[in-house]
Amino acid sequence: MYLADDSALDVVGLGDVRISLPNGSVWLLEKVRHIPDLRRNLISVGQLDDEGHAILFVGGTWKVTKGARVLARGKKTGTLHMTSCPRDTIAVADASTDISLWHRRLGHMSEKGMKMLLSKGKLPELKSIDFDMCESCILGKQKKVSFLKTGRTPKAEKLELVHTDLWGPSPIASLGGSRYYITFIDDSSRKGIKMEKTIPRTPQQNGVAERMNRTLNERARSMRLHAGLPKTFWVDAVSTAAYLKNRRPSVPMEFRLPKEVWSGKEVMYKDRSSVVSDVIEIDQKKSEFVNLDELTKRYSPVLNYLLLTDGGEPECYDEALQDENSSKWELAMKDEMDSLLGNQTWELTELPVGKKALHNKWVYRIKNEHDGSKRYKAILVVKGFQQKEGIDYTEIFSPVVKMSTIRLVLGMVAAENLHLEQLDVKTAFLHGDLEEDLYMIQPEGFIVQEKENLVCKLRKSLYGLKQAPRQWYKKFDNFMHRIGFKRCEADHCCYVKSFDNSYIILLLYVDDMLIVGSDIEKINNLKKQLSKQFAMKDLGAAKQILGMRIIRDKTNGTLKLSQSEYVKKVLSRFNMNEAKPVSTPLGSHFKLSKEQSPKTEEERDHMSKVPYVSAIGSLMYAMVCTRPDIAHVVGVVSRFMSRPRKQHWETVKWILRYLKGSLDTCLCFTGASLKLQGYVDADFTGDIDSRKSTTRFVFTLGGTAISWASNLQKIVTLSTTEVEYVAAIEVGKEMIWLHGFLDELGKKQEMGILHSDSRSAIFLAKNSAFHSKSKHIQTKYHFIRYLVEDKLVILEKICGSKNPTDMLTKGVTIEKLKLCTASIGLLA
């Protein structure tokens, strides 16, 4: 391109440009030349004319039109005709005087209606009403020719005459599954209701209600089209249209506002708390539909999910710099980089030929501290999915401490009144030494000047690397052996060290540590050793571990393990925090099977939008940690994750309602003793589909549950004796593991007592006599006989009504549930 001074500017590209117009639509300009050095954006009048546009220059103003649409307008400045395109709206308040914006806020109200509101002083921020054609209105308000009108006088009293009509069915179900809506229109005001019948299948006689349905549909369609939302949002759009309809001038009521006539209170549109703040523009990435108290109370999961997705944490580096807390995120990134550089995590070098540098990203998290404060944390994470097995890594397995180990040790703390301290390893994965040569690009925002072409050769492990957990564990394990700790064979993340009159136990879960001991001086000495080797944060007395609150009362010698806060978050995540509580984990009316799986395409499409698998995962974590009372029902609903149906989802919601009613239920260690006892039971062919049986067991230490399970057996059994016998061997293995573990911790048990309510199974385990009804049982299941003969397991009969494992196999009554939970230390 040549300028007037004969200088030339380079055209670097050719493409299409979309310009947002004042009326909210988009103007597409094709074959636009990209000239970076040109200071102004120029539009060719000749090109517009060739494309069929009309350009009008009158009295120092100009505008471009195509048909009835005004595409652009502006004023003459000097010898140039200038225009400007509106920038994206960030907040509603920034565009309060935009006429087209108010047109959309008011549900695409007509120009006449807006002028009437302006004349009544309802829109004080606008000076005049004059807007261009709205494309969404054209698309949304097309209609057939009207019937001839007949004169009618409005009624004088409220509710003297009410027009009503049911609209539907909608071809598209809403997000909540709705297909109908009903309208009620009061003809004027208040006393006495009179019913006037109309001729069947003659909607023209019910013109008021029919016209109202059309008005609501037109406005809802216009709002939805403008927002670019799918048809499933039609219910929200119609609700918003009804809300706004009551706040616009009504012709039959001499242009008064229906809301003012009904309530006697003045409506002002400048009240941002009711109209502006709730009718939010789609540019803000929130729901555009109002959700005021006056709208119909109905179940709407979408808005809650939208709120939950806004966690206030940036997704990338650019977002962090634009965030309102950008200074805190910058400080967090600086702290992370200081730790990485101080730990000599990498060195800058040139990338060797044949090697590939891994990419990375910043991950931002807001952590809630024990004292209620918030900590801003930035973590540099390598994109480990780019690694290739055998080249960039070999072994990746790394152990973590078992939940049953944590509960067992907490039972010891309560029984012997031990000290319980907690430590957190800062940047734990950075301490691991790498065995492979790995390279990474420099972190975004911290690229060294004049060394932009260099990459980072990793010396230490980083978050995101596939081998990072394993390398950290190997480093920590070596250190613990050097300072005299023994790793337990029963759990490789449990370390113990014995002294003359005391001992210390350390539990490791990735970067969280629990330290238990009777001598606080020795515990403090271990803390110093750990802090000297690794960057540590001393959290003092343990109050929370893995989302479980530790509530300790040393005066009464009790220790409680609670997940009430976690359960509250789960209820909120699935919009069940206002649900009606129930008293049992599984209702007696639920009979679940695979035959209930979706049969039609519509059912499958509906269930694909239900967060079934996510809900099961959330429930499973509560069950594994502190809630054995839901073990059976969670096991049942998890069998249908591949093809769940509505009945299965209703069962999941029932479990959530049960948790809502038992928020304060927690495991309570009373410190009574360290006696280990086991309870076993099984149902017979309880699974409707496979006819397999369920093994259930629970082990208590000092009367409180430390290990439990409710699992489907791998074989189909032929009798109740066989199913109880098979269950006993599975539980016997758990008994051996717990006995060995307690022995390693210096708490050797005299005998392992296993309670069963099946006399025939106990007899079969104690006597190896040949019997025609048991000859088919596989050899591996006779292992229980060896355990009984060597007195490693003592089988004892327990009355079925006193066996706490009943709740782990089937739905039970409220009274039975209370008995079962109380007998294993699960108390409210």
Automatic annotation (TrEMBL):
Keyword terms, alphabetized: Aspartyl protease, Hydrolase, Protease
Kinase among keywords: no
Entry's Gene Ontology molecular function annotations: aspartic-type endopeptidase activity; nucleic acid binding
InterPro entries in alphabetical order: DNA/RNA_pol_sf, GAG-pre-integrase_dom, Integrase_cat-core, PolX-like_BBD, RNaseH-like_sf, RNaseH_sf, RVT_2
Gene3D superfamilies xrefs: Ribonuclease H-like superfamily/Ribonuclease H
Residues in Integrase catalytic domain copies: 82-266
GO biological process, alphabetically ordered: DNA integration
Highest taxon of the lineage: Eukaryota
SUPFAM superfamilies: DNA/RNA polymerases, Ribonuclease H-like
Record field: compositional bias (Basic and acidic residues): 592-606
Disordered: annotated span: 586-606
PANTHER family associated with the record: GAG-POL-RELATED RETROTRANSPOSON (PTHR11439), INTEGRASE CATALYTIC DOMAIN-CONTAINING PROTEIN (PTHR11439:SF467)
Entry protein name: Retrovirus-related Pol polyprotein from transposon TNT 1-94
Organism this protein belongs to: Vitis vinifera
Lineage of producing organism: Eukaryota, Viridiplantae, Streptophyta, Embryophyta, Tracheophyta
